[in-house]
What does this fold into?
Amino acid sequence: MKIVILDYATLGYDLDLSGAERFGEVIKYERTTQSEAFERLLDADIVIVNKVKMVREVLEGAKNLKLICETATGFDNIDIEYCRERGILVANTPAYSSSCVAQVTVSMVCSLLTHLREYEDCVFSGEYTKGGNANALVPVYHEIDGKVWGIIGFGNIGRAVGKIAEAFGCKLLVNKRTKIDGYECVDLDTLLRESDIITIHCPLNELTRGLIGKRELSLMKRDAIIINMARGAIWDEGAVADAILKGEIGGMGCDVFSCEPLPVGHAFERLYGLKNVSLTPHMAWGSYESRMRCFNTVLSNINAFLNGEPTNIVNK
It folds into this structure.
């Protein structure tokens, strides 16, 4: 059994990957470009992958390939239909990062609404010391308690964020394809119009690609903030940047981008340094505990497959 790990750097250099060796020979690559992927999979029985696109052109030479293990919940980098045609099973790793993504989401919301960076700068710059007052209260900030928090996508992560939002005293609005008992489920336009805080946690698919564009942003309150913790292609990044620069929305935060890492000339470069913007390098999913859960789930998926009882298969 030959197991190929195509991009172990995405899991972090501190993670012990030796557990895969009990299943067979393991070939590890720190990173793999699209042009390198075809050759590296030629003799693979199982591939472990995070970001490399598993498309027909990459997979057609992998005649021995039986299982693709995605080290993520989302699997939009894999051509599911081609894998189904070939009988290649695809297993994802659900629910491993809910806690840490919720933690980063709420941290970003709190930082933006509380103007935490500005208050820290006040101290670090010496302005507070020179000011003579016992406190500084500019810029003005408002409590989260009583705000309307809209959540787009209400899977494991959305639910985790919702619990925290309710603990803060927020009213929840939920946008999801199917309604859920116990929650106020509304259409997207209503959520955008009525929410003070909007966080995005839905998967990227044909229905959600480009979900938030210029029209949708124009529906938001001028002081509302929007946070994308899902996929960069779910919104129009250029339109988001324009809305911020024109003062049409109050603030934005983002941990995911349509092209990663951020390329030179990306629309968000125009936002660097703005106090009402928070950009992080796709790290929300990656607490140590989360990455351990993710890889252990991959090992469980391989073990179940080899025992004839495959689990977490997304292309049955």
Summary: The domain at 98-279 is CATH 3.40.50.720 (Rossmann fold).
